[in-house]
Structure formats: C-alpha cells, structure tokens
Design a protein that fits this description.
Layout (H helix, E strand, L loop, with lengths): L1 H16 L4 H41 L2 H33 L7 H8 L12 H11 L5 H7 L2 H19 L6 H24 L2 H15 L5 H31 L3 H7 L1 H10 L2 H14 L4 H14 L2 H17 L6 H16 L7 H12 L14 H26 L1
Helix pairs in contact: 1-2, 1-9, 2-7, 2-8, 2-9, 2-13, 2-14, 3-10, 3-14, 3-15, 3-16, 3-18, 7-8, 9-12, 10-15, 10-18, 12-13, 12-18, 13-14, 13-18, 14-18, 15-16, 15-17, 15-18, 16-17
Length: about 400
C-alpha cells in the first residue's frame, strides 16, 4: 500500500508539473486498476461457493434451530445498534466542524460538471426496503448466485441448511447426511482456495492504491478538504473508540490484538472498497482469531450484506454537508429523519463500490434536498468509499466476536 501510494502520488505530481506526460500517468493508473481488478475477481470468484457452503455447514452444525434464531437475533441487534451509533457520531461531528459553511458552491459545481449524474435511483426508503424484501426470495437460486446477488443466496442457503437438519431427523432418512457431508467438504476446499488467494493480496493492494494515488492525487481534496476531514474524523471515532469499547466490554478481547489478526482483511477492504469481495479474507482472518466457524459462517455473510456502519455514517455526514453548502440549516427533527433514513438505507446498500452513493439519494429525498447535489461530492467518493468499507468490515468482524462470546 505504501509503495503504491508513493509511486502514484509521485507520478501524479510529475504529471501536474509537466515533468511526465499526463497520458503516461493515466496509463499507469489504468494498469494499477487492472492489476487490482484481477485480484478482486479472484476474491469474487470465491464469494458465492464460500457463502453457500459455509452457511449450510454452519446451520447443520448448530443442530438446534433455536440456536440459529438466537445467533441471528443477536447479530441483527448488533448491526442496528452500531449503525445507529455511527450515524449519531457522524451527525455530531458534522455539526461541530460544519464543513459546508463557507464552501463555494460555484467551485463545487465546476468540479462536478464532468461527473455523470445518477440516473435510476430509488424514490423512497419504503421502495428500498420493499425491494430488499422482494429480492430476498430468488426466482432462480442459480441465477442469483451467477449474478452475485447475495441476499437471495444467503436466504436460500439458510433454508437448505435448515431442511437438511429436518430431513436428517426424519425416521429412515440416510441421504440427507450425504448432502451435509458434501457441503462440509466443499467448505473445507473453499477455505483452502481462500488461503491460496491471500498470497496475492499485496499485489492487488498495490494495484488499487497506485490507481487511486496516480489517478486522483491531492487535487480532489482542495475544495472538499473539510468535508473529507469531517468524514474521516467521524469514521475514526467510531472505528477506534465505539467499536473497540463494545469488543472489550462484551468479549474481553484486546481490540489492538484483534485488529492485528484482521489486518489482511482490513487492508484489502480499504484497497478494494468492497465488503463482499473481502468476505473470504474476513472469514479466514476471523476464524484464525478464534471465532467459531458456526458463528462466522452466518454472521459475516449477513453482515457483509446488511451491516454498513461506515456507509450509514457517511450518508448522514454527506447530507448535512450538502445542506450546509446550500445554506439550509436542518432542524433537530430533520436531522433525526436523516439519521433514521440513513440507518434504513444502509441496510439496503449492497456490499459493492459506490452503493452508498446511490442510497444517499434516498436520504436527500427524505429532507427535500436536491438529489443532483450528489454530484458535488463524487470527486472524493473513491477514497471515502475505501474508508467506510474498512469500517464496515471491522464492524462485521467485531459482531462475529461479540455473538460468539455471548454463547
């Protein structure tokens, strides 16, 4: 990561000064992205078979369906609590720093002029949640797996695991045990493949960091510097104070040691900006840290899909920043509506790059702000996406440890 940043920023500066042709810098950034994309594709290749095999193995290994319900209830309770705390932190920090006050709207609009506006966006939070509920049930599980649509894959895998258990307890049934052993063996194979792919992580991280540093450089932060700093401070508070306190109080674990054990997953999350893409590494790291496979196989895939602390915080800060830029002082009631809508919208955000940007339109709609204002902050979205994805993965990993310790 350090090497990619140093090389990328050096090239970006050389291009700006005319020392190196700008097209050369652009080509190097493109090569970096292609290298990173190859690594991300390797990870994405593992995601669906790993989720299916781990969930089915985890559910059948629990034995009692009440255990599954207990783990699921604790996990979802954790997700909602930490996402709400993240939003409150973001709103508090943006009200203290007030990065939008004094920002020149004309300069922001000039920087956004070349950015494509989002076209097909959800109109309300009700639409988002209904679509999530509807998409939970796949018309074709194989098609959902092929398209990488995680929620229906998770739902179908849970059902398979539950009914394998029911079939095994049926009198005279022998074949269901064969199915259970097949998925258990598949899970072992997928974890070995994950360990192999981990070896290429430094190359992938180098490529993505080179792309971000050479392609963007520091120029994007000149107008939006205070906004970036506000998001960074809020994410830092949540990641280094709120979540570690929860981990220490609920499990007794050392947050520093736990973070060290998760370093590969966190660095990969930062460079790829994809919770789903990082999932194989997250599962491997968390299990190495001593969390039971039965817990990781359920909590982490679900968390990568619906637990978005960083995204929820980011959306709340971004909406209040946009309001400040337009000179609109949102009331406490309106800020409360932003908090609630950001919480619900974050659940509907997929674990892929820039999903939070799409969901922000929902939050802007909720308080009557122009949705076209999303373009004002697109220039720095990539680096903030990397930061908030890292927080998302950190939160998922702590959720697994907390749920595991509760048993």
């Amino acid at each position: 990561m350090g090497l990619g940043a140093a090389l990328g920023l050096g090239l970006n500066w050389a291009g700006a000064q005319g020392v190196v042709d700008a097209s050369v810098v652009g080509n190097v950034a493109t090569v970096g992205k292609k290298i990173g994309d190859l690594f991300l594709r390797l990870l994405q290749m593992l995601v669906v078979p790993l989720i299916v095999s781990s969930l089915i193995t985890g559910v059948t290994g629990m034995g009692d369906l009440r255990t599954l319900g207990s783990i699921g209830g604790r996990a979802i309770g954790f997700y909602l609590t930490t996402s709400f705390l993240a939003i409150v932190t973001g709103i508090a920090v943006v009200n203290i720093i007030r990065p939008g006050e004094g920002a020149e709207l004309a300069m922001l609009e000039k920087g956004a002029a070349a950015k494509p506006l989002l076209t097909e966006t959800p109109s309300s939070i009700g639409v988002v949640l209904w679509e999530q509920l509807e998409s939970l049930i796949p018309k074709n599980p194989l098609a959902a797996a092929t398209e990488g649509d995680m929620l229906p894959v998770i739902f179908f895998s849970l059902l398979i695991g539950v009914f394998i258990g029911i079939a095994e307890h049926r009198e005279g049934s022998k074949d269901a045990s064969v199915v259970r052993r097949f998925f258990s063996g598949l899970f072992d194979v997928m974890m070995q493949m994950t360990l192999f792919v981990v070896r290429f992580a430094p190359i992938g991280v180098f490529g993505f960091t080179l792309y971000a540093a050479a392609g963007k450089g520091p120029a994007a932060f000149r107008v939006l510097g205070w906004y970036v700093l506000t998001v960074f401070i809020a994410l830092l508070i949540h990641a280094t104070i709120t979540l570690p306190l929860i981990l220490k109080l609920r499990t007794g674990r050392s947050p520093i040691e736990y973070a060290r054990q998760l370093l590969t997953a966190l660095v990969t999350a930062f460079s790829t900006a994809s919770s789903n893409g990082t999932l194989p590494l997250t599962m491997e790291n968390v299990e190495k840290a001593g969390v039971r496979p039965q817990v990781t196989s359920f909590v982490l895939p679900l968390g990568a899909t619906i637990n978005m602390d960083g995204t929820a915080l980011y959306e709340a800060v971004a909406v209040l920043f946009i309001a400040q830029v337009y000179g609109i002082d949102l009331t406490m009631t309106q800020q409360g509506l932003v908090a609630l809508t950001a919480l619900l919208a974050s659940i509907g955000a997929a674990g892929i790059p820039h999903a939070g940007m799409v969901m922000m339109v929902v939050v802007l709609n909720a308080v009557g702000l122009p949705t076209s204002a999303v373009a004002l902050i697109l220039a720095v979205d990539r680096i903030l996406d990397m930061l908030r994805t890292t927080v998302n993965v950190w939160s998922d990993s702590i959720a697994a440890a907390v749920v595991d310790a509760a048993d």
